[in-house]
Amino acid sequence: MSESRNSRLRRPETLTALGIILVAAGFLIPTSNLRAISALLPAAMLIGLIVLSVVLLLADQRTASAGEKAAPVTKAPKRVIGAFLLIVGYALATDFIGFYVSTTVTIPLVAWVFGYRSPLGLLIATVIVVGTIWAIFDFGMSQDFPTGRLWGG
Length: 153
Description:
Layout: H1 5-9, H2 12-28, H3 36-65, H4 77-97, H5 99-113, H6 119-140
Helix pairs in contact: 2-3, 4-5, 5-6
């Protein structure tokens, strides 16, 4: 017999999917107060997170209905905690030193932490990502990103 309904809802992937859906939906509500052009990117990303989380939820429940045991939450908890701390650090850095400086530092740092060690590749990836963001949003759409409290913005 497969797991009970109650234990099926306590599976790590199911809980993760439900948590992401709730948090993304909560963050989606304030986007309705933004100008349409400003809300476009965050709303699209949040809706994408919700859709992917629903897919994860359905896949995990299908796996549970087949009687398969839930996989452990993580095989490398230090990496998960480190990734979470990097996200929190990036958010704080964006507030204090601005979006572009934070992003320019964070992209190679995250890649380095997760094992990519080519300095030239890190430089190219950083220039492409930051340059594309600037070209689309700052140059193309005239949207300003946070400059940070330390720079007076």
